Amino acid sequence: MGDDLASVMLTEAQIQDRLRELAAEIDADYAGQDLLLVGVLKGAVMVMADLARALHHPAEMDWMAVSSYGSGTKSSGVVRILKDLDRDITGRNVLIVEDIVDSGLTLSWLQSNLRSRGPASVSICTLLRKPAAAKVEVEVRYVGFDIDPEFVVGYGLDYAEKYRNLPFVGTLAPHVYS
Ligand SMILES: O=P(O)(O)OC[C@H]1O[C@H](OP(=O)(O)OP(=O)(O)O)[C@H](O)[C@@H]1O
Ligand code: HPA
Ligand SMILES: [Mg+2]
């Protein structure tokens, strides 16, 4: 796997430190309130696991699976629900937990889908955001890192389903794409 990577963009320690900071903000913002974390499979698995364990809030967790990327490196823009939430979210404070906001198409679609179900609130927490790649504006309340518009892998992020299990975020060497 070593030769497939061009660079390490964020180390494991940088990611964990930033998630602890975000968790402290979330703890303060939702103190004394209901909180349901909604992880977006599969990319958000690592963020959810580490963020949730850094929280002191007795938050609940649910999961959705949506897909817009298939096996390539560009969003198709067509979002499909592969797995819906297990429970009703009427009246709940929902915090969507994501690995990345790239074009914004997935999150913009997901946020309006969840808002149509009558929750008390819907906010977004993402580890990564690519401001220069935005095709739609999405209001993100908690952002780990703003990054350049390069394709990244690791810490949940895949290229054709590989590299999700890297503990850091890196960029791929050009030979991997060809
Ligand atoms: O802002 P966007 O351009 O819409 O891209 C972001 C979305 O794309 C990726 O998911 P993907 O659909 O590849 O599924 P995965 O999480 O299973 O990898 C990523 O995990 C985000 O959910
Ligand atoms: O840069 C990315 N890497 C992996 N998956 C992604 N899904 C959206 N953007 C990315
Ligand atoms: Mg993906």
From TrEMBL:
Main enzyme class: transferase
Keyword Magnesium: yes
NCBIfam families reported for this sequence: HGPRTase
Predominant cellular place of this UniProt entry's protein: cytoplasm
Similarity comment text for this entry: Belongs to the purine/pyrimidine phosphoribosyltransferase family.
Annotated EC: 2.4.2.8
Keyword entries, A-Z: Cytoplasm, Glycosyltransferase, Magnesium, Metal-binding, Nucleotide-binding, Purine salvage, Transferase
Pathway where this protein functions: Purine metabolism; IMP biosynthesis via salvage pathway; IMP from hypoxanthine: step 1/1; Purine metabolism; GMP biosynthesis via salvage pathway; GMP from guanine: step 1/1
GO molecular function: glycosyltransferase activity
Cofactor(s) for this UniProt protein: Mg(2+)
Catalytic activity: IMP + diphosphate = hypoxanthine + 5-phospho-alpha-D-ribose 1-diphosphate; GMP + diphosphate = guanine + 5-phospho-alpha-D-ribose 1-diphosphate
Subcellular location: Cytoplasm
Domain Phosphoribosyltransferase, chain residue ranges per copy: 14-159
Protein known as: Hypoxanthine phosphoribosyltransferase
